[in-house]
Amino acid sequence: MVTVKVDPGICGLKTTVSVTSEDMQTAAVSIESECPSVKQMEEELREVDAYAECFSGFGDSRVYAAAASHCRHVACPVPMAVIKGIEVACGLALPRDVGVGIEKS
Questions:
Q1: 103 membership: H or E segment, kind and range
Q2: Distance between CA 54 and CA 58 in Å, rounded?
């Protein structure tokens, strides 16, 4: 199982994405979130084809389609975190933290 923890920033609504795969192609996605909009994405993403998801364009991604339907903020980092979890669970990427730092001067 791969676990991806997301601290989204100013909204403070933390999310944990868990992804498992038995065949390295089909990914089972579970989302625990303090954000009700993000939690609604889970229903559409319970099982996804990792190759279709990780190698599609933004417009063809089921993850980003679910985000477009449910998330209220286009800068939400959760959709990216879901795809990163799918990549790692299916052996399409190595587990490595991702970071975004924001400074205002």
A1: none
A2: 10
User: What does the buried/exposed string (b/e) look like for 52-68 if buried means 16 or more CB atoms within 10 Å of the residue's CB?
Assistant: ebbeeeeeebbbbbbbe
pLDDT digits (tens, 9 = 90+) for 17-34: 999 999 999 999 999 999
DSSP 52: H
Question: Which residues, in sequence order, are CB contacts of 6 under 8 Å at separation 6+?
Answer: 14, 15, 16, 17, 77, 78, 81
Of 3.90.75, 3.30.110, 3.90.1010, 1.10.155, the CATH number of 2-89 is 3.90.1010
Look up residue 57 and give its amino acid. G
For residue 49, give the DSSP letter. E
Q: What is the pTM of this model?
A: 0.94
| Tokens standing for residue 72 | 């209220």
